[in-house]
Amino acid sequence: MLIPATLIPLMLAAQIGLGAWVVWLETPALPVMIHLTFAMIILGMLNWITVLAGPDLTGTESGARSIARPSGFCALVYGTTAAVFLLVLVGAYVRASGAGWACVGFPGCNGLALPFGSSPAVDLHLAHRLLAYVVAGLVFATAWQARRAYPAVVRLANVLVVLVLVQIGIGVTAVLGGPGWVVQSAHVAGAAAVWSMAVALAGRTWRAGRTDERQSMPDGRPTGDE
């Protein structure tokens, strides 16, 4: 928890400089993506600190000293969180480059299924869509596996599913209804909400593992600092 708390002020200072860079360059795609990347990292670290600083619910909710997580659940959660972050970055580049409006219609694109090669903007848009499908599948798989995990983890996984479904709905509305500041703002806010919940789920899962380690030791001592 000390490392994220130390990095946040430094990243905020860098974020201010990046913001000036974006304004000076009149918001080209790459600086905008980098600016949003720093913002999401800061948001993720704040969520991580919040989870670790909060009460440890996993040990009291499980009611048992055996590991309650299914095999491979931690890897699935961490992989899903990484995939969500990648999707947010790709989405930021899609929006900043104007590729968000390269495809009209859903589930197809401009009257075709997957018209790759039509233009770089269409290719980028379709790549973002396909990555979103992969992330949605990972989130659903995580929620399914979480049914055998701790109750706090299950709840977070279920909330993440709901947020992903809402975000998909916003995205579909955007490609069907055309550009508009309301739907664009909602899509960015939805991405931040999905990312925040994914980080919270990862933090709670990591903390559950640490609780298992402490409970498995004869003296109940932790193996290291959180």
What do these coordinates show?
This protein has 226 residues and is mainly alpha-helical. The chain has one domain. 74% of the residues lie in helices and 0% in strands. Helix 1 packs antiparallel against helix 2 and helix 5 packs antiparallel against helix 6. The termini are close together.
Notable characteristics:
globular, single chain, 226 residues, mainly alpha
Q: What's the mean pLDDT score? A: 81
Query: What class, by secondary structure content?
Result: mainly alpha
> How large is the share of residues in beta strands?
under 5%
Helical residue percent?
A: over 70%
Order of helices and strands: HHHHHHH
Shape: globular
Unreliable parts? 60-68
**Distinct helical segment count:** 7
- Radius of gyration (CA) equals 20 Å
In oligomeric terms, what are we looking at? single chain
Distance between the termini: 6 Å
Could you say how many structural domains there are in total? 1
Number of strands: 0
Main sheet attributes: strand count, strand direction, barrel closure: none
Explain briefly what this protein structure is.
By secondary structure, the chain is mainly α. The chain is 74% helix and 0% strand.
What's the arrangement of secondary structure elements?
Blueprint: H1 2-24, H2 29-53, H3 58-62, H4 73-97, H5 120-145, H6 151-177, H7 181-216
Helix pairs in contact: 1-2, 2-4, 2-7, 4-5, 4-7, 5-6, 6-7
